[in-house]
Amino acid sequence: MLIVLLRHGETAYNAQRRYQGKSDIPLSARGRARLRAADFAPDVVVVTALCRTAQTAAAVFPGARQAVEDDLREMDFGDFEGKTYGELKDDPAYRAWVEGDCLGRCPGGESRAAFSDRCCAAFSRLVDEELRKGSPCMAVVAHGGTQMAVLERFGAPGRAYYAWCASNGGGYVLRADRWASERTLDLVQEVCFAEGSPW
User: Fold this and answer.
1) CB atoms within 10 A of CB 94
2) CA-CA distance, 29 to 11, in Å (whole number)?
3) Contact 21/76 with Cβ under 8 angstroms?
């Protein structure tokens, strides 16, 4: 089975480099305009309850039915959401979080470990279900954090957490041949469905 794991298109928060997290920010006009349809059409695409994933899925996979798996939603950045580095850099709680390699719990939000465990458990359930059904392909449109959490744990060849974050509208095609025996997803190729992307 092949798995396509994409990041949503660009939002205003992305363009302004704001922490977005669980905030339900729609795609910007530029983000919508840059997306293009894929050259394949899955029957179903998994999205989160945040509208930016549904909007991206509708543009990239226009004929697909959408199924919501909200445990794949982005990390909850708590008190940091909606703010930029420049707005937060003098906040002692933010400085402590950054100096701790962004691993600790965001005030009012999640830790990276809790976020990763949530995403990986949900993703694993989905892959197991699709393999049981004999599906040839599974398509997921989620978030940059979702990609990083899932692929840091399951992706091969191995990469560090931040190295798995694709550009908006971008992502990965993965092969699940070793999933049942090794809980490993082999990278086939990187893809992007947004014009003007660095890919």
Assistant:
1) 21
2) 8
3) yes
